[in-house]
Amino acid sequence: MTARAQELSVSLSDNISTIQRFLETNKLPSLSIEQDVPFQYQANPDFTRPRDAAVLACKELLSLLTGAFGTLTSQTTAENANTQAICRFKIAESFPDKQESATFDEIADRCGLPEPEVRRIIRASLPSYIFREKSRGTVTHTAASRLLATFPLMRQWIETTGAEIHPAALKVADAIEKWPGSEEPNHTGYNIANNTTDNAFIHMSKQPGRAEKFAAAMTLFSNGPGYAPTHLVDNYPWDRHSSGTIVDVGGSHGEYSIPIAQKFSSIQRVIVQDLPHVIEQAGATAPADLQDRVTFMAHDFFQPQPVKGADVYLLRWILHDWPDTYATRILCGLVPALEKSSKVVIHEYIVPEPGQTPTVQDQTLRIFDTSMRALTNGKEREARDWKKLFAEADDRFKIEEMWTPERSSLGIIVVGWDASAV
């Protein structure tokens, strides 16, 4: 049996050839992103039929290549609206036990929605490869719908994206117009969408469970390809800090520093710092066999760092939450604690220049950048942005290495401290 991906590639090739013959027959230039097909030809069935078939082949092939994770995390706002409904009303979980297929009536009975509503939501999701309707009225799981049914974190991500990120992103242009050039974290699309003067994190924290739900949803990418702790654990020489101390600044529950402590038993102390309400919950998460080496400390990273002379101050996905003005303050907060042997290790995106990375990856990076701008005026930074940020914070910071390990989505930036500089 021919693999589906091969069938799609053949279909794509055949339809592109048909389109090219149409263009040549009508003395039109080849398809190009610089020049569109003239409007009067775009309604011609000899063009639209192969074009639509090619587009559908591209969409399905993209879904196959990126998998269920990529399919669900790259949705448009309209797609997300239907997927939110699937999550909210537990439609993907409402199949009879251990069955891969169910009728609309069976799903409706289990999720509590009227059958016409269930049918409408599911059929709106079919073009996004969430469910399949192989025979009239009978729905079958796809990899994406099965992931929604079995992976609660993905459901949280979908709902949080729809509730927090998309409304804020749609107001970015309004925020730019209202506060031109602002680097304040409360001059954002989120502020306009939520009618608040608080920054996003403070505003969420005032509503029980909202900040926790947002934080939990963001951990989805720790489970996704390219974001797992192993990329940080295996690609920095932690063993050079034997008998030393690592401070995980803004480290939440230690999802990244605890694996470092587990692999490198010679590291004497790992201190996970975060705000008091986070630390209250995080203290019980360290494995019993690490409790003599891993501790939790309440600390606001805008204040001076209280742990002096640590070997490494780790900031993982912290600075992208903040505009340069505030990211600089976070780095300046480290200065009183630094010694000549101290390293600052940043684990974040190092956004490549356009054309230096595959388009799909570049699109993901730009989506993240827009999302951070929408929420807090934060940003994903290119190499030159990182250099500028450290130079503005203190010219004694010296970037020693900056690279993105193979198969990792996030880069590693190693920064030394020139204690002799004045």
From TrEMBL:
<dbReference type="GO" id="GO:0008171">
    <property type="term" value="F:O-methyltransferase activity"/>
</dbReference>
<dbReference type="GO" id="GO:0032259">
    <property type="term" value="P:methylation"/>
</dbReference>
<protein>
    <submittedName>
        <fullName>S-adenosyl-L-methionine-dependent methyltransferase</fullName>
    </submittedName>
</protein>
<keyword id="KW-0949">S-adenosyl-L-methionine</keyword>
<dbReference type="InterPro" id="IPR029063">
    <property type="entry name" value="SAM-dependent_MTases_sf"/>
</dbReference>
<dbReference type="InterPro" id="IPR036390">
    <property type="entry name" value="WH_DNA-bd_sf"/>
</dbReference>
<dbReference type="InterPro" id="IPR036388">
    <property type="entry name" value="WH-like_DNA-bd_sf"/>
</dbReference>
<dbReference type="Pfam" id="PF00891">
    <property type="entry name" value="Methyltransf_2"/>
</dbReference>
<dbReference type="InterPro" id="IPR016461">
    <property type="entry name" value="COMT-like"/>
</dbReference>
<dbReference type="InterPro" id="IPR001077">
    <property type="entry name" value="COMT_C"/>
</dbReference>
<keyword id="KW-0489">Methyltransferase</keyword>
<keyword id="KW-0808">Transferase</keyword>
<feature type="domain" description="O-methyltransferase C-terminal">
    <location>
        <begin position="244"/>
        <end position="393"/>
    </location>
</feature>
